[in-house]
Each structure stands twice: as structure tokens, then as C-alpha cells.
Design a protein that fits this description.
11 helices, mainly alpha, 272 residues
Length: 272
């Protein structure tokens, strides 16, 4: 099926996002915050991030209400958006994205004002909000991420948005593409069987929560180190949280755009 002009522009935008080098903000903060980053790691060790992700994903799925999207899009069911217009889904996603950035900024400023103590509340809160944003944006494109493979897709988006190196981002994008292809071919059952047997093929590559927790721990620790200083914690907490959710939101929007285009036979999974 041929792409219209708007869809052609979005395909180019997806490609541009995929080529972007990750970690620009993370690297910048890493240089500045090295002296205090170790203190943050003592308070919230990387190992703790696995538990945060496990709990946050379940909470985020629960809080991702559909009613506002159904009303705004004037549809009867979320799945209807899978076959509507990409421009409509993008408009809905943009509203969700902007709302999430605002909430993340406010939450980061509030917890950041208390210095390093606030990080114990801030980290679980921002990860939950980030995952809720992914789930909510998925709804804008017609996808309820409730199956096991869909949950892996969500974690793949989080991995891509929080990658610390080019190789990590490439690996996350490769996994996302594999999942998109598998879903398009309706191989959920086969993938589930392979995952259960721990014999995953290229198409069945699954995001490791353990590895994701490690990457996320490094990324957020670098970004949030200066938040440990009460005098500037509110400013740092607000700006870092807002920027992080901005990154997560764009990763979700580009990933679900690609999934929508593949699902509507407007983009080949081989060139996606």
C-alpha cells in the first residue's frame, strides 16, 4: 500500500531517530557529576532497578486508562486506531507526550528539593511514569500492550530510549524490529513457546530485564547525580525528569509509528 505524503515524512523521521547517537545528555551529566555519582549508587544500587522495573511496568499498565483516548479519537474501541490515520494517532500521542513531560518535570522538582533523600521516591516514580507513557502512547496507535510479547515491546522501547552507547541502542532497535516482524506474522504462540524453552531465535529475541535494569541504572544515575545536592536538586530533578520522559516518549512514538506502518503494509519490516 502506498504511503501518503505525511506518512513518507514520518518514515524519514523514524530513520533519523534511529540514527541519533544516544546518551548525549547522559554523557554531559556524567562528566559533571562523577564526584557525586557514587553516592547516588550507594543509595540506589543498580541491582534495585530490576525490582523497580518489574513493579513499575505492572503499575503503569494499570494506570494507562483508555477512556480519554477513545473519546478524543471518537472511536468505539482502541483497536480501531490500528486502521485509522497515522496523523490522528500522532496527534493523540503528542498530547499524551506533552502531558507526561509536564508531570515528570513537576515530580522531579518536588522530590529534587529534598536532595538525595528524595531520590528513593523519585526513581520509582519516574520509571513508572515513563512506562505509563509508553503504554499510553501505544494506545494512541491502537495497541494495548497486555500480552507477554507486547510487554517485551514496551521494555524494548525503554531500552532504546535509555541506551548509553550506540551498540546498546542498535541492539534494542534490532529486538524491537524482531518483535514487530513476529507480531506482523502472527507468531506470538511460537515465540511464547521458544521463550518458555529459552531457545530464542533471531525473531524471538527478548529484552532481558536484568540487562535493562543495568542500563537504566547507569543512565539515570548519571543524569540525576546533581539532584543529590539540595540547593540545586529541584532544578536538576525537574529538568532531568522532563528530558528523560521526553526521550522515552519519542522512542515510543517512533516505535509505535513503525509498528503501525508495518501493520498497515505501508512499510516493509525488512527496511523498517
Amino acid at each position: 500500500m502506498a504511503l501518503n505524503k505525511y506518512e513518507q515524512e514520518q518514515v524519514k523521521a523514524i530513520k533519523a531517530w534511529e540514527r541519533e547517537e544516544p546518551g548525549v545528555v547522559s554523557k554531559t551529566f556524567g562528566v559533571v557529576t562523577a564526584p557525586v555519582a557514587w553516592l547516588v549508587q550507594l543509595i540506589i544500587p543498580q541491582a534495585a532497578f530490576k525490582g523497580v522495573i518489574d513493579g513499575a511496568n505492572a503499575a503503569a499498565e494499570w494506570f494507562a486508562d483508555q477512556n480519554d483516548i477513545i473519546k478524543s479519537a471518537d472511536i468505539s474501541a482502541i483497536s480501531d486506531l490500528q486502521n485509522r490515520y497515522l496523523s490522528l494517532s500522532d496527534r493523540l500521542a503528542n498530547e499524551i507526550h506533552n502531558w507526561a513531560i509536564g508531570i515528570a518535570t513537576a515530580e522531579g522538582a518536588a522530590t529534587g528539593a529534598t536532595g538525595i533523600v528524595g531520590l528513593t521516591v523519585d526513581i520509582p516514580a519516574i520509571v513508572t511514569l515513563a512506562l505509563r507513557t509508553v503504554h499510553k502512547i501505544g494506545l494512541c496507535y491502537g495497541y494495548e500492550c497486555v500480552s507477554e510479547i507486547d510487554k517485551q515491546f514496551v521494555l524494548g522501547i525503554l531500552a532504546a530510549s535509555g541506551a548509553n552507547t550506540v551498540s546498546e541502542k542498535v541492539a534494542a532497535l534490532t529486538t524491537l524490529r524482531s518483535i514487530e516482524v513476529a507480531i506482523a506474522k502472527q507468531t506470538w504462540k511460537a515465540m511464547a513457546e521458544k521463550a518458555a524453552q529459552q531457545q530464542l531465535s533471531k525473531e524471538g529475541a527478548i529484552i532481558s530485564v536484568k540487562n535493562l535494569a543495568k542500563e537504566l541504572g547507569v543512565n539515570l544515575t548519571k543524569r540525576k547525580a546533581l539532584q543529590a545536592i539540595p540547593a540545586i536538586g529541584a532544578i536538576v530533578g525537574g529538568s532531568v525528569n522532563g528530558w528523560y520522559v521526553k526521550d522515552v516518549g519519542w522512542a515510543a512514538r517512533r516505535a509505535f509509528q513503525g509498528r503501525w506502518l508495518i501493520g498497515n503494509h505501508k512499510m516493509s519490516s525488512k527496511t523498517a
